[in-house]
Amino acid sequence: MKLTLFLLAVVAACCVSAAPQSDVKPTARYITFIDEAGVEQTVDTEEEPDEDFLEELDKNDMNRYFLFTRNNPTTSQELINGDAGTISQSNFNHNHITVFVVHGWISNQESGLNPAIRDAFLSVGNYNVIVLDWGRLARRNYVTAARGVPLTGRRLGYFLNFLNSRTGVPFSRMHLVGFSLGAHLVGNAGREVGGRVARISALDPAGPLWNLNSNRIRSSDAVYVEGMHTDGGLMLSLGIGSAIGDVDFFPNGGSNQPGCLTTSICSHNRAWRLFAATVSHNHLEGRQCSSSTQITLNTCRGGALKMGNADMFKAGSGRYRANTGRRYPY
């Protein structure tokens, strides 16, 4: 009997330690992963930031905005903050919902998530899809990029204000989609406009340096903030394992995604792949969970809610687990 109780206690302790964390998780100094180009990259959370570059960033807005619509689904039109002519001469339509897609670290407008999410939205309706390229900052070392995220996000907020004032597109028809560091970036953009944008989709928000960061994304940054956590383990993970929004989904428990056998970046990137699939198919559903242990053990039995998708009137609260497959559309 004593042996049985001991074994049960050990199992329970293991389950709790493996669950998505509600408190601060430890972070190793060095986190190594393979980027989209197959190049090994290392996050050094104690590396010195590039102060000269950050000073340049403080003086110059480096954000670039590329518009795609059903009239130009693959060839972009560049919009310039403060230049109304670039908007009036483009295919931007103020009657359509405007979606911003924001990449993460060591990426730019050419990164794989941009066409995946763009094509998903344009396949289901008429949208203004605007890809933010903040690659000049994103391709610096991780500490420098993280330091520059709040300012870069506020500048995106300035652009949202510009669109609102010049075209009349309401904040209630704006949807910000950010991946990794880009999730915190769009949070700062939403904060800049007083949390008035309709929706933020935060796809596996970056974890290193962000657990105690007051500039990280939070639920007040939009009318509805949804987090999706796919690589939120305790150590050496790239995402935050704790809830950040009104609703937070933990696909397959929130780490070690199906088919991702060796690399953390695979689970991390699964967030934007899952999101794009849900925009196209709206097929993945989660069940509300009452504890981290339920998320880990796949015993959530609460109400159902669709994960991701393009619904601008989505609402809810709490943590959810959604189970997926290993291949598109998951």
Topology:
Elements: H1 2-18, E1 30-34, E2 40-44, H2 51-59, E3 64-69, E4 72-79, H3 84-88, E5 97-102, H4 113-124, E6 127-133, H5 135-138, H6 142-167, E7 174-179, H7 181-192, E8 199-203, E9 224-228, E10 247-249, H8 264-281, E11 285-289, H9 292-297, E12 304-306, E13 318-322
How would you describe the overall organization of this protein?
- The protein is of the alpha/beta class.
- The chain has one domain (28-322): 3-Layer(aba) Sandwich (Rossmann fold).
- It has nine helices and 13 strands.
- The protein has helices spanning 2-18, 51-59, 84-88, 113-124, 135-138, 142-167, 181-192, 264-281, 292-297; strands at residues 30-34, 40-44, 64-69, 72-79, 97-102, 127-133, 174-179, 199-203, 224-228, 247-249, 285-289, 304-306, 318-322.
- It has an eleven-stranded mixed beta sheet, sandwiched between helices. Strands 1-2 form a two-stranded antiparallel sheet.
- Helix 2 (51-59) packs parallel to helix 6 and helix 6 runs parallel beside helix 7 (181-192).
- It is globular, with a radius of gyration of 20 Å.
- The termini are far apart.
- Residues 1-26 have low confidence and may be disordered.
- Keywords: Secreted, Signal.
- Residues 57-309 form the Lipase domain.
- Pfam families: Lipase.
- This is Lipase domain-containing protein.
- It is found in: Secreted.
